[in-house]
Amino acid sequence: MWKYVKRSRVSEEDDEKSAGDVESELSKDMDQPSSSTDGREITKKYHKIFEKKVTFNERAREASYFLAELVAQKMICHTTVENLIMPAFKILAKTMLGKEAARQIAKIPVSNSTISRCVDDMSRDIEEVLSETLKNCNFAIQVDESTDITGKAQLLAFARFEYNGEIVENFLCCKELGQTCRGQDVCDVLSSYLESLGLSLDRCVGICTDGAPSMIDSMKGFVTLVKEKNPDVITTHRFLRREVLVSETTGGDLKQVLDTAVDMVNFIKQRPWQSRMFADICENMGEDHVTLLLHTEDRWLSRGKVLTRVFELREQLQIYFGENNESIFSNYLEDESWLLKLAYLADISEHLNTLNTNMQGPKENILTCTDQLVAFKNKIGVWKEHLSEGNYEMFPHFSRLQSNTMDNHRETIMPLIYVHMESLAEKLVKYFPSLSSEEYDWVRNPFTNYSSSSENTLSLREEEQLIDLTCDRPLRIQFDVLALDAFWISMKTEFPAISQKAINILLQFSTSYLCEHAFSCLTNIKTKPRPRLLPVEEELRVCVSKLRPRIKLLCSKSKHKFHTKLGDH
């Protein structure tokens, strides 16, 4: 055990050895009496020794930071570097470059504590850059709460802000909540963190949350408490979560088809040997897919994928259930009416999945997402018209079956589809009542005639600056060249009021996809082998942040500390 501990610390002691070598060389010369000329010679000798030692230590230290950054981004254990990556490096270096190269690589500090310290340093550096940036601009945040593998509630927050002439998004914080997750708890934790950075919610122009009572309750919800501090903040409830409610329009016969398809999947998945038998059937029939997908209510995007896979492997499922005397399932797969309903559900679910995916991304905002929802609502009306004319190409799986079986089941299937599509349209209106962004058309393109509704949202000064801007023909050329966010940011100096108004709109989050992604990363970071991992926030910040650490600066700070240590002697 002692040998292992000693070996793990060898690379960490290289810096101290280097410092000791320089000190011993300097001490020998200082102990000898000398003239002023000899003193200058000693100084030159000291600098040569120092530069030689420190130059290599800088490269080794920089390599440690790069390795630590890679480990954090790949969400793997810190000990992997010492136990796997470094031994592999040494073998490769010795094989390709010789023993001396392997000896030099062995001097890179890569112990568990070193990697942890590097991750902490990089996290603080990213946080420092972010805090300094947010102090000088408005920002919007998205907030969500979930539990980790140990059952502890974790609050995640991301910020969207101006940076280097464009709008960017970055990880803000991951804080553990206490025993309760009330709106007051969320507000206290987030406010306390912002204050520690010298920030406040006064510069926050938008908040995106889910529809949980702790977030949007009219009395004590997080949003309500924030509005008490900053009445001008714009609040949005994530479109992604409300689309779950839209997908819940599947009821009656269609809900029964979905439940039956899920039961089929669970029946095969619950026993490994059953999954192997089904995979053999699929392989023997030359199918590209040999496994079924599990469906979860929490991650509703799996619904479309599950139904599509069941539909694609319907023949193999029928053979499997027939061989295993599961007549209930095999009867469903022989029922043409049931298969038509399954095909329609797979198609409409894929359309919803596509809508959901298109509403996620770094450049998505309330304007683009509203456009997506309006387009989907209008498509429903078009689809209904084409269905009445016997055109089913918008539903490819349904269309694939209709030529052989549709004539026998048209009267029973089509009314069911019409009802479901009408329900979808109604739910869109209910959950997204303000499916119109015409009042912000001037943000999309200030050089077109904006509607009268826009005038009601602009002050006199903003209207005057908008008129001046639209009459400037050189700016029209600039608008055609630059991205939308870059254009409005570039107008801050000449037209500050209308520019800031547009930027505040573009800063708004419409979904919480960043939090969803971060929770997935958190699950990979804090796993069963690492349940007591404490610096979760530091690991997560280095992993998901768009801002990258200034490794050269961090190394120079370490060099300054080393130089100070030598200068004291």
Label the structural class: alpha/beta
Spatial separation of the terminal alpha carbons? 36 Å
Number of domains: 4
Low-confidence stretches: 1-23, 297-301, 562-569
How many H/I helical runs? 27
Helix content: 55-70%
Q: How many E strands?
A: 5
Strand residue content: 5-15%
Radius of gyration: 31 Å
Q: What order do the strands of the largest sheet run in, or round the barrel if closed?
A: 3-2-1-4-5
The biggest sheet, with number of strands, parallel, antiparallel or mixed sense and barrel status, is: 5 strands, mixed
Mass-distribution shape: globular
Mean pLDDT: 80
Describe the model.
Helix 6 packs across helix 26 (536-544). The chain folds into four domains: 2-118 and 551-567, no CATH class; 126-237 and 527-544, 2-Layer Sandwich (Nucleotidyltransferase, domain 5), CATH 3.30.420; 245-431, no CATH class; 438-506, no CATH class. It has a five-stranded mixed β-sheet, with helices on both faces. Mean pLDDT is 80; it is low at 1-23, 297-301 and 562-569. With 569 residues, it is an alpha/beta fold. Helices cover 66% and strands 7% of the residues. It has helices at 2-8, 14-31, 36-74, 79-96, 99-105, 112-134, 183-196, 213-216, 222-229, 239-247, 253-269, 272-284, 301-312, 314-323, 327-334, 336-358, 366-388, 396-431, 441-444, 452-455, 460-470, 473-481, 484-490, 496-506, 513-525, 536-544, 551-567, and strands at 139-147, 153-163, 166-176, 204-209, 234-237. A hairpin with a 5-residue loop joins strand 1 and strand 2.
